[in-house]
């Protein structure tokens, strides 16, 4: 039974009409929870130890760039020298909760670091508040653009509110991260592919070099599947980003990015949402490391096989539904198989989610899964985090991994059914 709106499909129980009010209620509950959690963490631990921890890296990098040069931001000794005063001057150490000081490495190309030279002209706290405001405003503005593109549909509004109040965006703002650029890069690449503007899509996707581990699986199929215009656009954007980075940071800057990624601390994986995070948790719970790694590798192979079968079922389709499913399937696969990925990076799935929910063929389970992914996981996180923030992050990472696996399973089943139907029709 159809509900008569693009985003909605009635539940068998007839409760479909309550889906939007329930989503808004959960969004309000999540907002209150985020507020309480943030106040608690700032009150207990201050700033730049946990809250604003990634901005600590960006602010220190801006200072280093102004004082010495952009190539110097990749020097771990200098990062320690510039980050430590921020840690010691603005945070309070709480035994059993706070993290001891360690210098965060910078894994970003110089072009993405350069804007922080301007923010570092401000005192640290105003700079952090301004950066959070820029991120929040940019995310709100971009989601509004998509609601407008979807003709201000009521359910699109609710989905956009849920995305803005999702746990991924909350953590993006809390830590002072940069994932709004990923949200825009992937969203505009998807939009332009749907409009047949393949060259422009390539240019936008090149912005994903800010976190290349999130776009690698998108790039390869698109380069094989699309015309040379997409490849030319992506190559042009990549050369521009690489060229500007080379001009700003020199070869030392590019080498520093590679070394930073190569020496990325493994302890950051435990709260992640990838297969290696699952392996780490298995080992921590007594599973032999070899067996845990074997289980992880099997997971990766099965996930990649399922993803390839989805792509095969899609064939050469170019309709909007296929593009949305392609992006969502590829991104959830990427979040599972990449070596490192924190939950805040899942914000990149926002626009594909928005469009997948719009499919009239989607059953009610899709909206429920979206609400769990965006809001319920956040409510669980802050509820647990009020008592044990570290364990809450670990739980959230595994929960997000399981949700992404379920998304992939649903997409796999949907496209295998569609392929079987197309085969029978032919």
TrEMBL record:
The keyword Glycosyltransferase applies. It comes from the Bacteria. Keywords: Cell membrane, Glycosyltransferase, Membrane, Transferase, Transmembrane, Transmembrane helix. Its EC number is 2.4.-.-. InterPro entries: GT87. The chain crosses the membrane at residues 20-39, 101-122, 128-145, 157-186, 201-223, 230-251, 291-314, 326-353, 365-387, 394-415. Belongs to the glycosyltransferase 87 family. This is Glycosyltransferase family 87 protein. It comes from Thermanaerothrix solaris. The lineage of its organism: Bacteria, Bacillati, Chloroflexota, Anaerolineae, Anaerolineales.
